[in-house]
Amino acid sequence: MYVKIEDLLFQYRNAKTPTIQNFSLNIEKGEVVSILGDSGSGKSTILRLIAGLEIPQKGSISINGQKMIDDKHFTPPEKRGIGMVFQDYCLFPHMTVANNIKFGLKKLNRKQKQERLEEMLTLVNLQDFKDRYPYELSGGQQQRVALARALAPAPSLLIFDEPFSNLDRSLQEKIREELRVIIKQTGITSILVTHDEADAKALADRIVYVKEGKISRTVTSFTLHTNNKKVLTFS
């Protein structure tokens, strides 16, 4: 199993009850999993635990056979090889699209950085926008830059925290389709946290419903053929 999460327990310092309890989840390589829940359900905390931004009181997390956290180990966030895309994109406003994407490529030489940049620009279809600044881009274009920046260092895992919350509803559907194509094209294992079931169904191979820090149910996608078109549904 590519991502293995076992028996997580986490409680914030001033909270009366745990935010996450008895949480276990296995994810296969290349799978896209959505963690779906209402505000306060603990879904974003799960991402923070995976990324190493919070430390659980109990439990373990492994990615690609490497232990990230257990009662004896803690791998810091910068060494986990995780790409993160947040709801506000966190682009550097003083940097061009090109420099935003190249920001995480410090270990590569100049030629390698340029080659990787061109690859990412092509992947997200922003070749003509590399010299623009974030404020000159639409919300959908900014999101694609954030995705390209997260993918550029070739992370072992990609995580999204409410990536469509800042987009108009009319734009969400288009961006969801583009994002799924890009993720599947790269084959990268991904976790999406959202409160919107439509987002989860559009992107995920599997939806994990979370309530009060626990998994309430899980549904898996399958493909139906309707009028010679593939339609992704869930069971």
Automatic annotation (TrEMBL):
Q: What is its EC number?
A: 7.6.2.9
InterPro entries from the xrefs? AAA+_ATPase, ABC_SmlMolc_Importer, ABC_transporter-like_ATP-bd, ABC_transporter-like_CS, ABC_transpr_FbpC, P-loop_NTPase
The record's catalysed reaction(s) read: a quaternary ammonium(out) + ATP + H2O = a quaternary ammonium(in) + ADP + phosphate + H(+)
- Kindly give the SUPFAM superfamilies that the UniProt entry links to this protein: P-loop containing nucleoside triphosphate hydrolases
One short Pfam name that applies is ABC_tran
Pinpoint the ABC transporter domain residues: 3-235
Provide this UniProt record's keywords sorted from A to Z.
ATP-binding, Cell membrane, Ion transport, Iron, Iron transport, Membrane, Nucleotide-binding, Transport
Listed under GO cellular component are: membrane
**Single GO molecular-function term?**
ATP hydrolysis activity
The UniProt subunit note reads as follows:
The complex is composed of two ATP-binding proteins (OpuCA), two transmembrane proteins (OpuCB and OpuCD) and a solute-binding protein (OpuCC).
**PANTHER family on file:** SPERMIDINE/PUTRESCINE IMPORT ATP-BINDING PROTEIN POTA, SPERMIDINE_PUTRESCINE IMPORT ATP-BINDING PROTEIN POTA
User: What name is this protein filed under?
Assistant: Carnitine transport ATP-binding protein OpuCA
Q: What is the lineage of its organism?
A: Bacteria, Bacillati, Bacillota, Bacilli, Bacillales
